[in-house]
Design a protein that fits this description.
Elements (H helix, E strand, L loop, with lengths): L2 H10 L28 H13 L4 H6 L2 H5 L7 H14 L5 H6 L6 H17 L2 H6 L1 H5 L9 H12 L2 H10 L5 H14 L4 H11 L2 H6 L1 H5 L3 H9 L7 H14 L4 H8 L5 H10 L4 H13 L4 H14 L5 H7 L5 H14 L4 H8 L5 H14 L5 H10 L4 H11 L4 H8 L10 H13 L12 H10 L10 H16 L2
């Protein structure tokens, strides 16, 4: 084609058809994956009007709830954050103190100025209790590089130095939020001239473990008469570090005899204090054993019996086995579980027999513990006892679920051998049990099979799950066929 022909064809051709122009969408409202995402189409309309008209739309801002602006205060766009701060100034919504305080460290200078104006205004107007709730966010400004925290801290301290502020600060040491408690405690130490006993009393009332640990030096510095006064009402002390400090110091000074001290420490709710009592009496194990046996024989509270069995489990004294076996028949399942653990610890050689007895327990929490101990023991499974229990509990779905959970922790052939006991479930129960069986089969480690099954295992597995019931492409069928061929070749 020559040049003339080309120009003729080009000039004589029809112009391309106009493509439909898509409807313009809002310039700032994007999908959730967008970089400058804003939350809410109503917010986006007001924000877009501000961007286009360069005039702050006060009327439209007042028509929106202030929560819409708080929700966008963490936007990646500095303009969006500036708009939200200006809108919150219009609403004068002091409930936004905490999120606005975070903008005091904003990397946009105008946003820091707007946030500072709002925070200073609200701090001067809000109730002191609300200021105390925001103390963690306000005190964290001192560690932030861009925040101008000097003016904020000045207003905060001015509010807290008042009588109402000091009362709110002391009440804040018992706040439900740990950060608020600890900031209030730090400010109390800085602003209130507390003595050592006053610090101990305040730490006891707040119940915070970290605060309680901080006053342990004050406990060690108490005179004997005050220390004994605290020791007399030690059961009223909620914080474990304080109870431990009182007991340690009383024993160190020799202010109480051993029976009286052990009566507090042996039955304390804290394991560390009970362990400490056993450590103190390690040279007199007979005393400990007698205390524990007396607690088991007396009609004491279940908690004390549980602590006694815990102590016997730690001591492993052979003469206490009978008492532990007797406790396995207690009416409380909590006591029976503690007795099972103590019995297996004392008589480790026959622990499988004790676990088999526990599998017959009527309470499933005891049975669950028995299954867990059975798997952790590494001993051969008492399959006869388990089959007997399966026949007895054939209508109890939780029993077979526990059995499958225990089996899922084992290697392939022992796991399937144990799972084959589910065939003893009642026919009406099998439809509900099938989902658990399928879940168990899907989690088998088929790539980690290193030994062949024993004839007893193979017989039980094939009786429960014949290979014909498995799909032709089933990985489990593939593994079973391999080992069936190997066993046939070896004459097993």
């Amino acid at each position: 084609m020559g040049f003339k022909e080309f120009m003729k064809k080009l000039l004589g051709s029809h112009p391309p058809a106009k493509q439909a122009i898509p409807a313009p969408r809002m310039p700032h409202y994007e999908e959730l994956t967008g970089y400058y995402t804003v939350r809410g189409q109503a917010f986006d309309r007001v924000y877009s009007a501000w961007c286009c008209d360069k005039v702050f739309p006060v009327g439209q801002v007042k028509a929106l709830a202030p929560e819409a602006f708080v929700a966008n205060l963490d936007s990646r766009s500095g303009y969006v954050r500036e708009f939200c701060l200006r809108a919150l100034a219009v609403h004068d919504w002091a409930d936004a103190l905490k999120p606005v305080a975070l903008r005091l460290n904003d990397y946009v200078p105008i946003n820091r100025e707007l946030a500072l104006q709002l925070v200073l205004k609200w701090l001067a107007e809000l109730p002191v209790a609300t200021v105390v709730d925001a103390l963690p966010e306000l005190t964290a400004l001192a560690q932030q590089s861009r925040a101008n925290d000097a003016a904020v801290q000045e207003v905060v301290l001015l509010r807290l130095r008042s009588q109402a502020g000091q009362s709110a600060l002391v009440a804040g040491t018992a706040h439900g939020h740990a950060k608020v408690r600890r900031v209030c405690w730090k400010l109390c130490l800085e602003t209130l001239a507390w003595t050592g006993p006053q610090r101990i009393d305040a730490a006891m009332r707040c119940g915070d473990p970290a605060i309680a640990r901080s006053v342990e030096p004050d406990v060690f510095a108490l005179p004997d008469n005050e220390l004994l006064a605290w020791f007399e009402r030690i059961h009223q002390v909620r914080a474990m570090p304080l109870r431990r400090a009182f007991l340690v110091e009383v024993r160190r000074r020799g202010l109480a005899d051993t029976p009286r001290l052990m009566a507090c420490a042996l039955w304390d709710d804290s394991f560390s204090i009970r362990w400490l009592a056993r450590f103190w009496s390690k040279d007199d194990a007979d005393f400990l054993v007698q205390q524990y046996l007396d607690a088991l024989d007396s009609p004491s509270a279940p908690r004390r019996k549980r602590y006694a069995l815990e102590g016997l489990e730690a001591l492993k004294a052979p003469g206490t086995l009978v008492a532990c076996e007797k406790a396995m028949g207690d009416g409380s399942p909590v006591i029976r579980k503690a007795a099972l653990m103590a019995t297996c610890s004392i008589d480790a050689e026959h622990q499988i027999a004790h676990i088999a007895d526990a599998l017959r327990d009527a309470d499933l929490t005891v049975v669950r513990l028995a299954f867990r101990m059975l798997w952790a023991s590494g001993e051969p499974l008492p399959l006869d006892a388990l089959q007997t229990q399966a026949n007895t509990r054939c209508n109890e779905l939780p029993f077979f679920v526990l059995l499958l959970q225990c089996a899922s922790q084992m290697s392939l052939w022992p796991a399937m051998h144990l799972a084959s006991i589910t065939s003893l479930a009642a026919p009406a129960l099998k439809p509900q049990l099938q989902a658990h069986v399928d879940h168990f089969l899907s989690g088998l480690a088929l790539s980690e099979v290193y030994v062949a099954p024993t004839p007893k295992q193979w017989q039980a597995i094939c009786s429960w799950l014949p290979m014909d019931k498995l799909g032709p492409n089933s990985p489990l069928r593939y593994v079973m066929e391999i080992y069936a061929k190997r066993m046939a070749d070896s004459g097993a």
